[in-house]
Amino acid sequence: MSNINEGESVGIKGILKDRGEAKMDNGKILIVDDQFGIRLLLNEVFKKEGYQTYQAENGQIALELAGMHSPDLVVLDIKIPGMDGIEILKRMKEIDPSIRVIIMTADGDLKMIHKAKELGALTHIAKPFDIEELAKTVKEILSDKILEKM
C-alpha cells in the first residue's frame, strides 16, 4: 500500500490518484483534461458516485495510467496541448480495443467529433457540460459494462 493521501499529486507530472475510503466497486474512470478545474470537478462528482478515479493532464500521463490501471471508462478532452485527444484515443484503442471513451469538446468541431466516433468514442459531451447529464451518461455506460462481465 502506498503513502498517497486522497487527492495528493503523485510525481512531478501531477498525476492525481483518488484514494477514497470504503468505495463501492462501480468501476474505474480515467479523466483526461489539461484544465485542472475540470479534472477536479469530475473527480469529485465521480468519487461521490462510488467510482475509482485517475486523472491525467496530458496524453503521455493518460496512456501511462490507462496501461497501469485498465480503466472501465475514459472521459477525454479533445483539445489538449501536445498530443491531442484524437491521438490519445488512437493510442488507447491500440493498447485496448475495447476501452470505452467519452470525448469532451468546447468548440463543437463536427469533423473532430466524427473522427473520434470513427475511432471508437461512444459519445461526446459539449463543454460547458451539464454535470448531472454527464454523470447519468457515465452511469449508463458503466452499467452496460458491468452487465457484459456477468
TrEMBL record:
Domain of life: Bacteria
UniProt GO BP: phosphorelay signal transduction system
Modified sites of kind 4-aspartylphosphate: 77
InterPro entries: Bact_response_regulator, CheY-like_superfamily, Sig_transdc_resp-reg_receiver
Single GO molecular function: transferase activity
Keyword terms of this UniProt record: Phosphoprotein, Transferase
Residue stretches making up the Response regulatory domain: 28-142
Protein's recorded name: Sporulation initiation phosphotransferase F
Organism of derivation: Caldibacillus thermoamylovorans
